[in-house]
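Bit of a strange request maybe. I'm writing a small parser for structure token strings and I need a real example to test against, not something I typed by hand. Could someone generate the tokens for this chain?
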Amino acid sequence: MSSMPGGRARTADDDLELTPDPSLPPTAVDDAVREAEEKKWTPTKIAVWVAIALLGGVAWFMLAIIRGETVNAIWFVFASVCTYLIGYRFYSKVIERYITRPNDRRATPAEYKADGKDYVRTDRNVLFGHHFAAIAGAGPLVGPVIAAQMGYLPGTIWIIIGVVLAGAVQDYLVLFFSMRRGGRSLGQMAREELGVIGGTAALVATLLIMVIIVAILALVVVNALGESPWGVFSVGMTIPIALFMGVYLRFIRPGKVMEVSLIGFVLLMAAIIGGGMVAETEWGAAFFHLDKVTIAWGLIVYGFIAAILPVWLLLAPRDYLSTFMKIGVIVMLALAIIVVRPEITVPAFSEFASRENGPVFPGALFPFLFVTIACGALSGFHALISSGTTPKLIEKERQTRLIGYGGMLMESFVAIMALVAAISIDRGLYFAMNSPAALTGGTVETAATWANSLGLSGVNLTPDLLSQTAANVGEESIVSRTGGAPTLAVGLAHIMQQFIGGTAMMAFWYHFAIMFEALFILTAVDAGTRVARFMLQDSIGNFVPKFKEHSWRPGAWLCTAIMVGAWGAVLLMGVTDPLGGINTLFPLFGIANQLLAAIALSVCMAIAAKRGSFKYLWIVALPLAFAAVVTITASFHKIFSPVPAVGYFANNAAFSRALADGKTEFGTAKTVAAMEAVVRNTMIQGWLSVIFVLLSIIVIITAIIATVKAFRHEAAGLDHADHEDPAVASRGYAPAGLIPTPAERELMAEWNKLPADLRLEKSAHH
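Reply from user aminoacidic:
Good idea to test on real output. This should exercise your parser:
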């Protein structure tokens, strides 16, 4: 291998001559033209970036250094947005230039494997929506709310800096490498790059972790919708709305994305407003007032159907619809914060930052903050989406930066807004909502007394405040509404009513937020199930090759049924858990999710090394090292800690002793059945933690070995095994970013002049 400019090794792909079709315009902007555009710095452009850097610097100074009695919420908005802009414009460009090195002259799997079902060329704007909707599940909403127990600063730093250096890097690299390999799953890529031992460990770990992640996502939906007729009706209506949008785009008005988006948005608003009206009727309250077990079974059936339908019929339009709403709500909340400018009284580091016995979640700031805020900063679940549905839909290689890196930045912004919403409400109210009923007592009087007994600065909670807040948001009670979603809804309603509508609108904003959250999470459940199906098909396909054909319906249905059955069983265990499920399962979700990120980064490091990107390998190695240290430390705490509140096995032993001593209640469990559930759940979670961390360590070690081997091959001038699909010349063109550059617009104009029969057909979503 000879060396190339920029300090990287020449790969086979650089020498590849893709013969273009002479009857078509160029399929990529000329490299010299594109580079000249990127390097052109005008005085205006320089002034804009200097202003962004200065505003971001001032915002960070206000949050991290000044830290007075209160801090204004606008600084969270400015610090995050300015950091994201700089990270996307500069850091992701370094990754594109020296590690991924995209080539738009190559066809993507959506082009050379097009089947109209799973492999479909999809417009970048629609695909950004689908990808964002699929990755942005419960994590960016729930994790930051729970982590607010530690104060505002640790979570803020991890969410914003973590995403630029870790989360977005992982998403972008996995998406690109999977796309180059025909859209293969993360586990399958690990098997090819890390050998039988590392690959098998990664396959087993990803499948097991996927089951836990989808079950937790579904559990948050169940908790948000349980016994809420308004929520059940509104969220249920999104399914026929999405089906209508899919048919409308495919057959009635192909290509009219903005038109169908406006129709979908109007229908969505009607579903929310109509939900409130229906919930107030006698028949509506009776018909849509469902218990959690019924909702769980409904989700299980929905997950199966959504995963086997063609992607254009339900998944893509539903994700696009929910993205329209998700990004709209988050931007609206950011604008409301800038206008209302709420003062945050929560300290930068709370009293629980240096303790292990927090009422919302137990454990020290390091490592538990970093696994509690899983999504939003770094999330292994995203690697499964980035190697699942998205690489099979992408039109051009250069779009991977926008969708992979840019999509993750958008999710991080959701996490910051969730954190601000949680810390904008009264501190006492926050702890009364997020602590289990076993601590709060479940009534407004006992919850107020308990919150005041914590001895926290600025906390003087009254039963009246709890009752009045519940009445304002149209709920019977808000005490011990754990899981993060209700707290975010109260915070959002608290900020939005100051922006639009006043106190009279709080109930609308609260249920609007619950609907928004359920939509957010439901899209991750259906996309996650489809990805889990791909993963299982790839795994079985190693032994029965027919299963690797994703379009083979019997294989698709069987694998979907197996994965839905697995996460459905965990979901039902969580729903029927007398302690609420979410409190005991969320730490396992966070650790599993971050271990999966370490696995994904390990695979990326091995691939980047084999591509000769040694000088810039630190871009992958840095987040991998951090993720490995944090998650392995957290796992060891959960496995070996003698503190029952932290260690699974310590908790198991304490409750087992209590049962053996004939006690009928113990700790947070008030019945024998609840005590038995704790014993059962802690044993399952303890052994799952052991399995997850062992598999992850095996993968990390094999990845380091593969990287060292690649370095030695490079030094000896030997070639590496290349598992990319053979290059095929592209026959289509599309711009790389949201806004086309002048050169891209010129090339698009050439393509638009072509007769329709010569143009490469996209999906209906363009």
